[in-house]
Design goal:
8-stranded parallel beta barrel, binds NADP nicotinamide-adenine-dinucleotide phosphate, 10 strands
Length: about 290
């Protein structure tokens, strides 16, 4: 287990993501959530936009469908709610495309709670920075969400370090998570200060697309070759090695597993037990950089 940021909320070392979740029927959705919880993935990450563009016949094209599906699972089995740390996101409205105005966010969180069949979420994240809204206004919305009890903690996704600093100074409550894309094939967060900033403020880094959206298991290259040799040495799959790799840094990194295949979900949970040596981590970093560290 690990803590969510500097809170006293305990979470498993691997999380389960619902980006690809909207197409399931309720019984499949229920099975996947139980499989993830059984594999130690107590933090379930979703977003109001997940499902958008997957249902062209609907007026809203599927906005909210992944939350709705999870909400149906929770309505049928309310005890599951207490077993999970429920995280969602808002701030992409699919047209504008980003809206973090006070009015929009306060309506968005209400709509998410209704779809999810819950009175509160454990974590609410701004999905992408809205360049047109002042950070003072974004902060006011997040402060009010926490103070009204709708949201236990707050975080951001796809923000730069300066954007997080600009928001943080206006917040009365800490950012407990940052959510960048981070994988063995997308190592930018090691270089752009995101991981360092997480250490500075004690936040958890939630790594999205930790298998590069499927490219790590589905393609070959120098990074995958190093992962294969680590996988052989530890008796795990390439994908599990890729999840363990991103846990190997100074910051607290929480990979968000995206597979919707129950066998792969269970296997992904093994990554919580694998701790590569510093040399092994550098082998993957060097394969990505195409040369030895200076
Ligand atoms: N904040 C953001 O902007 C943002 C953006 C994207 C994602 N996210 C979060 O991150 C989570 C994970 O993202 P992701 O779904 O892109 O994760 P990912 O793990 O990088 O990719 C998952 C994809 O890889 C495929 N895959 C996994 N193992 C495989 C294997 N052994 N062989 C072949 N294909 C394999 C999966 O297919 P199967 O289902 O068939 O296994 C799925 O299509 C999302 O659910 C969401 O919570 C956040």
């Amino acid at each position: 287990m690990m803590k969510l940021g500097q809170t006293d909320i305990s979470i498993g070392k691997i999380a389960f993501g619902c980006w690809r979740f909207a197409g399931h029927d309720v019984s499949e959705a229920d099975r996947l959530i139980r499989t993830a919880l059984d594999a130690g993935m107590s933090l379930i990450d979703t977003a109001d936009i997940y499902g958008f563009d997957e249902f062209p016949h609907l007026e809203d094209k599927g906005f909210g469908q992944a939350e709705l599906r999870l909400g149906e699972v929770l309505a049928a089995a309310p005890s599951l709610r207490k077993q999970m740390i429920l995280a969602t996101k808002g701030g992409i409205d699919a047209v504008r495309p980003y809206d973090s105005s006070y009015t929009y966010l306060m309506r968005a969180v209400e709509a998410s709670l209704e779809r999810l069949h819950t009175d509160y979420v454990d974590l609410y994240q701004i999905h992408r920075p809205d360049l047109t809204t002042p950070m003072t206004e974004v902060a006011r919305a997040l402060n009010d969400m926490v103070e009204s009890g709708k949201v236990r903690t707050i975080g951001v996704s796809n923000f730069t370090v300066p954007q997080m600093r600009a928001l943080q100074v206006h917040l009365k409550h800490p950012l407990v998570t940052l959510q960048p894309e981070f994988s063995a094939l997308e190592q930018t967060p090691l270089e752009n200060g995101i991981l360092d900033f997480a250490e500075e403020i004690g936040a958890t880094v939630m790594a999205w697309s930790p298998l590069a959206g499927g490219k790590i298991p589905q393609t070959d290259g120098p990074v995958q070759a190093v992962l294969d040799s680590l996988a052989g040495a530890y008796g795990i799959s390439r994908s599990t090695a890729a999840l363990a790799f991103i846990r190997g840094f100074g910051a607290n990194v929480l990979p968000i597993v995206g597979t919707q295949n129950p066998t792969r979900i269970t296997e992904s949970g093994y990554a919580a037990q694998v701790n590569f040596t510093g040399r092994e981590i550098y082998d993957v970093v060097e394969a990505y950089r195409g040369g030895r560290m200076p």
